[in-house]
Structure formats: C-alpha cells, structure tokens
Amino acid sequence: MAFICHETRYHYPQPASQTIQRLILTPDQRKFQHVKNWKISLEGTRAVMKSFDHHGNIVHIVSQQEEVSDILIIASGEVETYQNYGIYGSHDNLLPLALYKRETSFCKMGPELRKLNSELPSIKDALSFLHEASVFVAKKIIYKKEVTKSDTDAETAVSLGHGVCQDHVHIFLSLVRRRGFPARYVSGYLMTSSIVENTQSHAWAEVYLEDLGWVGFDISNKISPDENYIRLATGFDYQDVRPVSGLRYGAGEEIMTTEVTVQ
To answer: Domains in the chain and their CATH numbers?
Structure first.
C-alpha cells in the first residue's frame, strides 16, 4: 500500500488575472492497481470539469477568474499495487496501435539517434531485444539530474550524454518505434528506496507485443515495473502526461514548485 502526495504551487509576484489548467493527477483503477481513495484539493482555483482523454487518462480542468497571487494543487491518496512482472496486458483504449509507432516532437530521429540506433544489439527474439535495448540506453545515457529540462527531446539528450528517466524513455521510444514496435510513455510514482528516483514522479516505457500485450521497461533502473510502481497516465510522450499544464492571463513572472512524497 502506498500513500502519495503530489503538491504543486504557483506564485505570481504580480497577481494573475485568470488561469486555466489541465491536471492529469488521478490514477485509475487498473490491472494490478487498486485506488483505495484519492482526492484533489485546490486553493486559489476551482475545478470546472472532469473527463477522460483519448489515452483513457482521467483529466481535470481547473480555472480561476479573479486575481490571485498563489495557487495550490494537492493530489493525494492511497493505492494498493500487485506484482505483474512487467506485463500490463491488453490494449486499453480506442487508439489504433499503429499510432504508437509514429515519431513525436519529443521522439524524432536525428543524427545522434540514428547513430545510436545503428549500435543497438541485433537480437531476433522481440522481448530479449527490448530488454537489451533498455539496458543499452541506460548505459549510453548516464543518469544525471539538472542536465536536461522538461522540454528536452530525445535527440538533444543523446547529444548531451546525460539525462533523467524522462529522457531515457523518450530515447527508448524513438529507437524501438524505429524498429516497428508500438510503444508508449508511462508516468507514475515509484516507492522503493533502493533504486533511482524514490519518492518522486517517475517515468517508464511500455511496448506492445502480440502475445503479451503491453510490457513495461524502466530504462533508468534496468528492470521491469513491479508492485513498487503506481501508474498515473500513458501517452505518446511526456507532452500527453504532464501532471499540470495550462495558460495564464496577465503580465509578470510565474514561479512553480512541485513536491512529491510516496510512503
């Protein structure tokens, strides 16, 4: 059982006259995951709509129509997870699997990625190849914080030679899609103290195989997701699963801070 608290604060030194934000901060009941309770608490803004996007993620729209200096968004709750040995299973939305083979703005092949692609090990068995590709990316792109940013694409991360879980996933997606595999980005949380990025938002990849369905690969930690992983959302890349995104009306600076706790 995991207790999660994901807190996002916005501060506007010059008050914002209006904001509208999309929240993807609610885990769904999934295979191997039972949401015991979950809530989103808001200060300085209010919820106006709850819906699902085309990936099946739960989406909240929040907005405020009067000047504010601070906005606080807290998503919290308890989630029980079960061992699934990295296998998520059958396709879970109405999008054709072919769409998961396309390049995206974060996962677009350039010279650096093409060179990396040429160095991938040649293994005929699909599952073995994917595991080797995952380890290959982690070894080539050394895990290091504060080298890349949230808008860094896979090509740039390869050229830097360093990155975090988001970069590892984008690079892995770029390479395996090039080989013809449907692959997607998964966001969530990790609750193990012995490996990378404990008590923080985390990201991993899933690849669709005909005989197994969606199979998970945590590139940063060189393992398959297990009962220590809480799924939050899936998408073609990070753009689809941003926890908080939106627009602000009004001049001045915006300061955002995020704190995530997983116990």
So the answer is: 2-80+242-262 (2.60.40.2250), 82-240 (3.10.620.30)
Q: Give the count of alpha carbons within 13 A of 259, CB side only.
A: 5
Q: Tokens at residue 62, please?
A: 């929040």
Q: Is 99 left (phi over 0), alpha (psi -120 to 50) or beta?
A: alpha
Which of 171, 112, 107 lies closest to 139, judged by CA?
171
Cα Rg for the chain, rounded, in angstroms? Answer: 19
Query: Which letter does DSSP use for residue 94 in this model?
Result: S
Q: Which amino acid is at 100?
A: Y
Q: What is the pTM of this model?
A: 0.95
Residue 159 CA: distances (Å) to CA of 72, 98, 156, 180, 236: 36, 28, 5, 24, 22
> How do residues 77-107 score in pLDDT, each as one tens digit?
999 999 999 999 999 999 999 999 999 999 9
